[in-house]
């Protein structure tokens, strides 16, 4: 009944057990649908040396939604995806209905200096490298991609209270996006004061801290994570709405 708990039993002693908290684990993902690359465009000839930025990634999201004919949409963003969700709310406000932003930040200075030393993070990076080799249509190496990401993370995002003030509040604009700022109580990638700061800068936003999980909450306790996402998506925009 309890997902995400890890208990080691010492068969020799017959009694002792060692509890490992969910936030200290990185469980295997459940079976996923086979990747479909039929819609993947060839990237030969594209300037892969173009610096990565959150603004460019955000424009990619808008470009995809335009292509699909979707005028208004919601996002569930994790880590960089949370930053992209913030960027959407700031710069494409009218396109966003609501945003569930987990583990985002507003400055490289808020990245935990010891995050890369975490056993969970190290295991995650090993997985990412294997998945990149398997799924990326690019012929470039993972190392080259990692260097480009590290360059971006070294200077971006570069936001402050004034940046987040661009996001309208539902107290004055009924069509403003519903904003949930979400994180785990054992977050190890960004400083734990960051979610509260962002929440205070987005007037009318909601702050949600999930128990017993870290930056990788969706893998460590997917049941709780999914319940919160479902509630977020179903939550009425106005009081009394069904």
UniProtKB/TrEMBL annotation:
<dbReference type="InterPro" id="IPR050471">
    <property type="entry name" value="AB_hydrolase"/>
</dbReference>
<protein>
    <recommendedName>
        <fullName>AB hydrolase-1 domain-containing protein</fullName>
    </recommendedName>
</protein>
<dbReference type="InterPro" id="IPR029058">
    <property type="entry name" value="AB_hydrolase_fold"/>
</dbReference>
